[in-house]
Amino acid sequence: MDFTQAQKRTEELKKLIKENNEAYYVYDSPVITDFEYDELFRELKRLEEEFPILKTLDSPTQNVGGKIIEGFSEVKHKYRLYSLDNSNNYDDLKKWYERVQKENNNNSDIELVVELKIDGLSCALSYEKGKLKLAATRGNGIIGENITENIKAIKTIPQVLSKPIDIEVRGEVYMPVSSFERLNEENIENGQKEFANPRNAAAGSLRQLDASITTKRDLHFFAYTAITEDKSLFKTHKQSLDLLKELGFDVNPNHRLVKGINPVIELCAYWETERFNLNYATDGMVVKINDIFLQNELGYTSRAPKWATAFKFPPEEVWTKLNGIEISVGKTGAVTPIALLEPVQLAGSTVKRASLHNFDEIQRLQINIGNEVLIKKAAEIIPKVIRKRENEDFGVYQPPKLCPSCGAQLVKKEGEVGLYCLNSLNCPAQIKGRIEYWASKEAMDIDGVGESIVDKLWEKNLIHDFADLYKLKIEDFMQIDLIKEKSADNLYSAIQKSKNPTMTKFLTALSIKHIGKETADLIANEFPTLNDIKNATIEQLTQIDGIGEKASNSLINFFKDENNKIILSKLEEYGVNPQGSAVERISNIFEGKTFVITGTLSQPRNFFEEKIKQLGGKTSSSVSKKTSYVLAGENPGSKFDKASSLGVIILTERDFNLLSEGKYNE
To answer: Lowest CB count within 10 Å: 52, 426, 575, 618, which one?
Structure first.
């Protein structure tokens, strides 16, 4: 691969990895397996080693993934939380151990602690004089989410330790498999969304803005490390685990102190199959040098400790029969095939469905109903079909010509692999998809209104579009099977509570093509009212930094459409009133100025974003010629370089403060 090809592939990999980091860390909804993620990560690492000039500060190989979700306050970690490098086979484990020996000039066997890698949500708990003061998620390793109140709802986490010491405790919040299955059963009965796996259930439960909901969920916590400035408390990792147990924490009992790498490999082989007998999810083993002094001698890379590695269990694969193919139609009209399988045990759970992605993938796999197919799944994520049995010929499943929901002709758009139904106004699947999206967390965030409730309201002919949600009464919900008065009241209240959204949420919820959350935010910052947005011209819209012609035309065409006008009119009639920017302007000192923020600053990023908006300015996620200033903290990355090359003014935090007071001299 020449340099140009390597450069292009590196950028593709960075984008893919960052998108998947956000799906995993922020929204707790991974879209690829751990194994596939690790393959992408290893490929990026290899390219950066071969072409060092391609390694940038903002590369995923240099940072821990994850950013802060909306709703929780940010907190800067006192001690950075690092990620772990992975060993995916026994040769990788041996190579890691040999490097450790070499760097320590030590040919004798080194003491190691081997632990199960719990598949939960990482948290850092800070105690002062033995009392819990702060709890935070990992976030990006430097800044996390303040979840102190929710952590207090977990009974296995002591709020007062057995010793009055200052200490930071790290561990994994998890949900037992039995509790996860019970929760999903209850959700199905109540018409609510199922969780994909125990990790998602734990993360979703812990990240509830209402701590009383967290209290009702059966969450547990395994402590796996401690950090303290009192060096007399422990000198080895094993001693730190013993101390944690003494302080009142649950420590996973399946950790072992061994010498050399061979016992580590034996333990990994044992737990690869035995893990399915546990009542919690685990996707690998963690191996750490026991001696704290040796740990400190080895130190860290930019994202991971050199003295530890994670051995990832290989993705489990299993054969089963393809009993059918279900055709799903989404809110955009995209048609997706889903494999319906003979139920089979895979990675500790029963699997009945698997992804087929698109009809080109079916053609590539040469599969049809009746085939025996191999499916795989890593870390309890939705499985996918890999291949069929050789010498098994059932022909190839042919894509439908008509939409299974409305009967309209399906078309293939130019440059796209998928099939589409273009009958957006009369296709029930698309309409229901838009209603579900309107109520989703990313949009209006109407608690309890998911796919099942929307389906039942549709079947009862109670709704025909998302505006109709606001005409529903409590007695309408009680027409649905298993919905009692209290649940009906909760659903009604949740819908009423969403009547005054921010303009960003409102625009996002409308499902306008090319208008996602970030684009909606840029538009909402520029136009204070819905009427202003409706009357915006193509010239006004394209002048907004970050808004192109495609998005501008899509927005204008949406508001011209007669059907959309009817829905908007109904929303107004039912009292849905978007509120414009959530930030109150206090000055116009930044009027007409666009800021890009990069690097680590003294306050969380949203602190500066809010201040910029209060002073009449705008923020953007990318640097361009239209950018007025780049506010740069520590480790600013590629945005700093681009600003320098374009001649954009770069501000330190002190410069920014002077500028906001009108004292900065450019």
So the answer is: 52
